[in-house]
Specification:
Blueprint lengths: L7 H8 L5 H6 L12 E6 L9 H14 L4 E6 L3 H12 L4 H23 L15 H8 L1 E5 L21 H12 L3 E6 L4 E2 L11 E2 L1 E3 H7 L8 H8 L6 E6 L5 H6 L6 E4 L2
Parallel strand pairs: 1-2, 1-4, 2-3, 4-8, 7-9
Antiparallel strand pairs: 5-6, 8-9
């Protein structure tokens, strides 16, 4: 195409191959904009938090409400024990990874709806993926919004290298929203202080890690991680979301401090 209105990059994309490494490299020269630079992602763990019920969830809800008007908050939810049960039944029935992803999606949605109902009197809406185009409006109007953390790959989910459990689950979905929208922070709310060298519930000698890079964490090759491993791989290629924070939501004030920019719990960052 001999269109003088096309930029040099536009002409190379039209005339060249999308497998050409130089053409692909040229597309990275212009950095992506941060669509929601003042927003904060809060991912509430399923098994590690919501499954604990009223004693864990109600104080966190109160703290979220206290921060309305001070911070823009995008709340994602995990699947938890019910998702694991669904996976076990699905695997026993011989269902493939893509179908297991559908099952996990609906459990994560159940948790999102429960959090939504608890925040309904404050006008905080629940949205599904098709409504994400309206997310900026909801934030501007209400200051917060709730979504289910499972990425909407469903049947199109890739197979894992080992087994059949969907590797991209709710931690990954919450992180991807942060990366795409260029949010200010990504906070994972768990029932532990943060990242440890082992599961502190099972190993009392596990050591707490306050701050670590993705490269250092991968080199440690820990058997147990507080976040899904695909999140770490995605952070290595991140354009916007280059760090995540894991906090203990059971301790009152931790979320408020994290939203204010304080390094509470563990910070994992891309080199």
């Amino acid at each position: 195409m001999k269109n003088q209105l096309l930029s040099e990059l536009g002409q190379s994309l039209v005339a060249g191959s999308l497998s050409d490494q130089q053409v692909l490299a040229d597309t990275g020269r212009q950095p992506p904009i941060k669509i929601l630079p003042n927003a904060n992602i809060i991912k509430i763990g399923g098994q590690s938090f919501i499954d604990r019920g009223r004693a864990a969830v109600f104080p966190l809800i109160e703290e979220i409400v206290e921060n309305l008007g001070r911070h823009e908050i995008i709340i994602g939810t995990g699947g938890g024990s019910r998702a694991r049960h669904a996976y076990s039944v699905g695997i026993d029935l011989g269902l493939p990874t893509g179908v297991l992803s559908v099952l996990g999606t609906f459990v994560s949605m159940q948790n999102a709806r429960m959090i939504h109902y608890l925040l309904a009197k404050h006008g905080i809406p629940f949205i599904e993926p098709i409504q994400f185009a309206q997310l900026p409006l909801y934030l501007a109007e209400r200051g917060a919004v709730i979504f289910f953390g499972m990425p909407p790959y469903t049947f199109w989910h890739e197979n894992p290298s080992v087994g059949r459990i969907p590797p991209h689950r709710t931690d990954t979905g919450a992180y991807l929203v942060s990366e795409v929208f260029g949010t200010k922070s990504t906070i994972f709310v768990k029932d532990e202080q943060g990242l440890y060298t082992a599961d502190p519930k099972k190993d009392r000698s596990a050591k707490f890690i306050k701050r670590i890079s993705v490269a250092e964490l991968k080199e440690l090759d820990l058997e147990d991680l507080v976040v899904e491993r695909p999140v770490l791989s995605m952070m290595e290629n991140a354009k916007n979301s280059k760090s995540i924070q894991i906090i203990n939501g059971m301790e009152k004030g931790n979320l408020t401090r994290a939203l204010a920019g304080e390094e509470v719990g563990t910070v994992i960052y891309a080199d």
